[in-house]
Amino acid sequence: MRRTTARTGAGPVVDTPAPEAAAGPEQTSAPVPAPAPAPVEHRLRTEFPFELPRGYVDGTGTVHRDGVMRLATARDELIPLRDVRVQENPAYLSVVLLGRVITGLGTLPSVHDGVVENMFASDLAFLQDFYRQVNAEGHTRAAVQCPHCSEPFEVELGGSRLGES
Asked: Which of 68, 51, 65, 55 minimizes the C-alpha distance to 103?
């Protein structure tokens, strides 16, 4: 048993057992392993906000510009292929597909292919491009390089308005 001595001023010497000796014979002094670092949780982003260049005008004249698009599933891409309108006119595929993946637009209670088919052509083109960026490339950011200083940086492609960077 290891003993330590403690002195306080001119008082007597007191022998006290060391902390590890006070633990008892049933415990060992093996080092306690450090806890493993918590795993970093990567969450998949499934919804992406956007702003239409012109905006959808509903029946009351209200313009809706801010919306949300979710990632498409395989089902989202397969179901429209059975639609008669798509079979008769393959260009209609993007209208039906966008009607499935746009989860919100302004204050509209729901978004469907009827809403998408009544959008301005510039908004439809924007949404088609946005869909490709979100689903094919997996993100809406692009790495670019400054033409003046050659410094690399990223730009947000989704949700920006035409003519803005």
From this structure: 68
